[in-house]
Amino acid sequence: MVPPPVGSMALTSLRFASLFLLHDPVFDGASAPSPFPGPADGLANSTVHPGNPDKTPSPSEDPYVEQGESAFREVKQLLEKDDWETVEEEDGIVVKKHYNDKYKRYDYLSETVLNASAEVIFNELWWHYERSPTWNAETTGVEIIKRISNDTMIARVISADQGSPYITRRDFLSVYSWHHVDDTFYICYVSTEFPGAPSNEEYTRGSHNPSCFVISPRADGFTAFRSVLNADAKVYAFLEPIFRVAMIRAMINYAAALREYAPKLEGLS
Ligand SMILES: *[C@@H]1O[C@H](CO)[C@@H](O)[C@H](O)[C@H]1NC(C)=O
Ligand SMILES: *[C@@H]1O[C@H](CO)[C@@H](O)[C@H](O)[C@H]1NC(C)=O
Ligand SMILES: *[C@@H]1O[C@H](CO)[C@@H](O)[C@H](O)[C@H]1NC(C)=O
């Protein structure tokens, strides 16, 4: 991979915003694994591989369950920290950051309020995660690689074409798990490896350090939504400052898109 020419940096920086969003691009699972169809194929029509949600994980799948548990524990600790710093506040959406010593990167946290119940939001983000490209422009597709059990799955997101021949697309492969504690749903995710979804030369594989959607009911029937994200898009160090800015924008866009979509969910299944 050749470094991008400096002149193209500004043009591509916003595009890069989507790299950080886990809710990022992906492809139509129907024709997986390779070659991956472009964003146009995956755009309006992603496919789920439901696997067998009710089955208990086999011993060989336990490591995924453990990864999910461990990501959840880390995110819970992050949320309890009192040194989150507000970096952006816009139209009811707040973004904060916190430097993570373990990963030597910032954790980002967005917060907003959604007009739907916590159950409905959880249901959408867990059981219809592949549908996110239909409501969120930051995402061009999602593939559910495997539902390992009721509460653990492997999913892959692939970044959109960066519009430059010098920049490869990113993909992220993560294990997701949900946890229900004191009325709050946590859908946590962290990078993993899976035999059925190896990286390939077409994509640079980014990584997610423990990240999470946090969905809490409010007394007024609305839902407090938080997204914690710690992503490494494996970009050149000199581009990192640009990406940090782009990332904040992408988190705002995602929260705004979910907020707009939420009231429409009651009617969907
Ligand atoms: C998605 O694909 C299914 C089956 O291939 C098809 O029936 C459906 O019309 C497609 N939906 C869209 C929005 O393209
Ligand atoms: C799967 O989750 C549902 C609730 O969403 C629960 O009723 C069911 O018992 C769970 N199945 C297993 C095998 O854990
Ligand atoms: C919340 O959504 C419902 C539709 O489900 C709508 O009737 C209501 O006006 C919305 N409330 C607010 C405050 O936006």
From TrEMBL:
Record has Cell membrane as a keyword: no
Region spans: Disordered: 32-66
SUPFAM superfamilies the record matches: Bet v1-like (SSF55961)
GO molecular-function term, one example from the UniProt record: cholesterol binding
Superkingdom per UniProt: Eukaryota
Domain called START: residue spans: 80-257
Gene3D superfamilies the UniProt entry points to: 3.30.530.20
Key words of the record: Signal
Signal peptide (residue range): 1-19
Residue ranges with Polar residues bias: 44-59
PROSITE patterns xref list: START
UniProt-listed GO biological process terms: cholesterol transport; vesicle tethering to endoplasmic reticulum
CC annotations in GO: endoplasmic reticulum membrane; endoplasmic reticulum-endosome membrane contact site; late endosome membrane; lysosomal membrane
Protein name: START domain-containing protein
